[in-house]
Amino acid sequence: MADSPEMRAITTSRFYVEFDGMTDKLLKSVQEIAFQGQVKGNEKALMSGKGGMTVRQSTSAGFEEKPNFTIEVYLAEGDKQFYDWMEGTMPTSYSGASGAGQGKYQDNRKDGAIVAYDPSDEEIMRWTIRQAWVKSYKLSDFSADGADLAFETFELVCEDIERIK
């Protein structure tokens, strides 16, 4: 089955992320796409049955938290779209006196996609992202003796991530 042309492994280095109105960005990485279901009812016994048999029940109880993931975007002169998006979603006093967001995360949600490509630049996988907003922001280190490219890290939360391809 592994020799079948329909089944081929993909590399992690051929990808792209886009959001409403934000394309052609210099992306470093997409990390930790995660969401986890909850199980309830198994913590304690529900009843005791014939012969002293303890009866338990496990039930799905939705998700522990909304799906989230992290993207790293290289800094590019004159491009602040991701940062501006973050400011729109942050509370009006997210950094004390040094700065404030617009407090409009509900109005600044964006739909998007994560796409994986094969070596011939053909799209082979796609995840749709619905109603994402920025949860946290981090800037890479600057150093006088550094040689790395500077980047921003954005942790995103969304209503849904679905693999459609």
Description:
The chain is mostly beta strands. It contains one helix and eleven strands, in the order E-E-E-E-E-E-E-H-E-E-E-E. The protein has one helix at 81-89; strands at 15-19, 27-34, 37-40, 47-48, 54-55, 59-63, 68-74, 110-117, 123-139, 151-157, 160-163. Strands 1, 2, 7, 8, 9, 10 and 11 form a seven-stranded antiparallel sheet that branches. Strand 8 (110-117) and strand 9 (123-139) form a beta hairpin.
Radius of gyration, Cα only, in angstroms? 21 Å
The description of the largest β-sheet is:
7 strands, antiparallel
**CATH fold-type name:** Elongation Factor Tu (Ef-tu), domain 3
CATH level 1 class label? Mainly Beta
Please, how many domains?
A: 1
Give the proportion of residues in helices.
Answer: under 10%
Question: Topology, please?
Answer:
Elements: E1 15-19, E2 27-34, E3 37-40, E4 47-48, E5 54-55, E6 59-63, E7 68-74, H1 81-89, E8 110-117, E9 123-139, E10 151-157, E11 160-163
Antiparallel strand pairs: 1-8, 2-7, 3-6, 4-5, 7-10, 8-9, 9-10, 9-11
